[in-house]
Design brief:
This protein is α/β, with parallel strands linked by helices. The chain has a single domain, classed as Zn peptidases (Aminopeptidase), CATH 3.40.630. It is built from 9 helices and 8 strands. Strands 1-2-4-3-5-8-6-7 form an 8-stranded mixed β-sheet, with helices on both faces. Strand 1 and strand 2 form a beta hairpin. Helix 4 crosses helix 9 and helix 7 packs antiparallel against helix 9. The protein is globular and about 40 Å long. It starts with 21 loop residues before the first helix and ends with a helix. The N terminus is likely disordered. It binds zinc ion (ZN). Zinc ion binds next to loops.
Length: 270
Amino acid sequence: MCDRFDRPLRWGGDEFCASSGLASVIGGGPAHPVTILHHLRSVRTLAFVMSVVAVCGVAAPASARMVLLGRSWQGRPIEAVEVGNRSGTPVLVVGCIHGNETGGIRIARALERLSPRDLDLWVVPDLNPDGVAADTRQNAHGVDLNRNFPWHWRPLSGVYESGPRPLSEREARIAHALILRLRPHLTIWFHQHLDLVWASGGDRRIEKAFARVSGLPYHPLPQLDGSAIAWQNNRLRGTTAFAAELPAGEPGRVAVARYVRAVLAAAHLR
Ligand SMILES: [Zn+2]
């Protein structure tokens, strides 16, 4: 059940653990709009639907599917929205992993409203909701989730506290399981605020396409021990993951649109 936050994910059909309300309507079945309409017809009142929309706070397109991936240590939901074509190229965008770097969440929310025909686009707006609530880089255990992945993990303390062992953190395990399931052709992790594309081991054509369209300078930089990106680029060969380091502050509407175009430009390169 959904209240067993730490339970390993099971995938496919009704095995998804969807959150309440609209999420269960959308999350439990195939993403086809007709199916959703069928479910919606079974809902007794419009008021119920509206209350669910209000709770979820998501204005996703009819073809979107919301999935509750799990919960943070403090019980906050960690959700993904899948849009586009389920048989398309799998692409993952994570809006926020460091809780005091929230600029990418706006971009993630904009991506949720798309319906790209040839992409199976998964968007995780916020992987670290406890960190966002506390305005801290780390999660509620004081761990930097981007040092908690199983590639060259080593004990680190202070701002880069890496946890007691690889994948010790619930939030990191959630991302790890999702990535192993999806095997995204491309994963973009939004960070702040270095104002550059941190390229470290992915396909340079794809990284450079994102840099060109986004306007973020392209920089080949070292792979970081225990980072999600290093783990992906080394363990899932043939796929690309990189960090898009936004400038400081919240991106405005024009900037969000530019980053959305950059995501799509990168995602369409094979
Ligand atoms: Zn960061």
